[in-house]
From TrEMBL:
Gene Ontology process terms (BP): carbohydrate metabolic process; peptidoglycan turnover
UniProt organism field: marine metagenome
InterPro entries: GH, Glyco_hydro_3_N, Glyco_hydro_3_N_sf, NagZ_Beta-hexosaminidase
Alphabetized Pfam families for the sequence: Glyco_hydro_3
Coiled coil: none
Record keywords: Glycosidase, Hydrolase
SUPFAM superfamilies the record matches: (Trans)glycosidases (SSF51445)
Protein name: beta-N-acetylhexosaminidase
Family: Belongs to the glycosyl hydrolase 3 family.
Length: 320
């Protein structure tokens, strides 16, 4: 139930502690970032890295990436990969065949490389033109929930055809926010609208959603305790699981974002997230050395809190 970033690694080092944990099945998988890509021989070196990581693991594991297209794109043309288009561009073009075409190119590339999870597409609505994390980076197909649904559907279908898991995000909606959860608490209580659930409901009803990623936004319309969605049982269990009837995997957004770490602490946030409904905890480790966490550290915290009765063993079993 853990996915970790692997630091600056571009090749497997048997002595690396992260990969040592991976070999012992402590991790459910890894997430790749641009820094893991060799700038001169991108595709060749990345495939070798992924093959080696899977070889080290004793069981098939998640190899994840954020490959939305446009400005959120790890596999850039300058490293030898194809050009991508942003969700904003495709939404404005509003040609579903084009959205499918670019998604098929991306999913085919991921399959070739051995990447099996794409944390995309974004189904946030473009409700705030000053949004610093969604609209600014052209990550939304638009403000019309039906349009967002249709384009996301094409994106997911193209990935499913290549057996790539997708994770629609950022539940229950980040499009109206005016601040960035990477940096601070983001409260959408006054700006969030119920229509932001529409793409989730429609895609879940289609039966093709393989993953959903939570957001760290606070939304008192859904949980008056003012917990971020990632830590909120009302949001993840009552709304997502029960009201929307979602049965698949729930990934957390990065547990090391400031919206979480500065206000809830590592141990408390892990307890709340697991009990609330998160199946897979994501730790990017894109931090300074003193703020990085190790798999051993997280596993020890989880085991301790299971023993102390703070984490439900039922939730651990459900996550698998």
């Amino acid at each position: 139930m853990l996915i970790f970033g692997i630091g600056d690694l571009q090749k497997v080092l048997e002595s690396d502690s992260m990969l040592e944990a991976y070999s012992k099945n402590y991790l459910g998988g890894i997430i790749l970032f641009e820094k893991n890509i060799n700038k001169k021989r991108g595709k060749h070196h990345l495939k070798i890295l992924i093959d080696e990581v899977q070889r080290i693991s004793q069981i098939p594991s998640f190899v994840a990436i954020d490959e939305e297209g446009g400005k959120v794109n790890r596999l850039k043309p300058e490293y030898g990969f194809h050009q991508t288009k942003s969700a904003k561009y495709l939404g404005q073009l509003n040609n579903l065949d084009s959205t499918y075409h670019y998604a098929k190119l991306t999913s085919s590339l991921l399959k070739e490389l051995g990447i099996n999870v794409n944390f995309a597409p974004t189904v946030d609505l473009a409700l705030n033109l000053e949004n610093p994390v969604i609209y600014k980076y052209e990550r939304s197909y638009g403000k019309d929930p039906e349009k967002v649904y249709f384009h996301a559907l094409k994106f997911i279908k193209a990935h499913n055809e290549n057996n790539i898991i997708t994770a629609i995000k950022h539940f229950p909606g980040h499009g109206s926010s005016s601040t960035d959860t990477h940096k601070e608490v983001t409260d959408v209580s006054k700006s969030w609208i119920i229509e932001e659930l529409f793409p989730y409901q429609k895609l879940i009803d289609e039966g093709i959603v393989t993953g959903i990623m939570s957001s760290h936004v606070v939304n008192s319309q859904l949980d008056d305790s003012m917990l971020p969605a990632t830590l909120s049982k009302k949001t993840l269990t009552t709304i997502l699981r029960e009201f929307l009837s979602y049965k698949g995997v729930v990934f957390s957004d990065d547990m090391q974002m400031s919206a979480i770490t500065k206000h809830y602490g590592l141990e408390n946030s892990i307890i709340l997230a697991i009990n609330g409904g998160i199946d897979v905890l994501l730790f990017s480790n894109n931090q300074t050395a003193k703020n990085k966490v190790s798999p051993d550290q997280i596993i020890s915290l989880i085991e301790k809190n299971i023993e102390d009765g703070n984490i439900s063993m039922l939730r651990i079993n459900e996550s698998f």
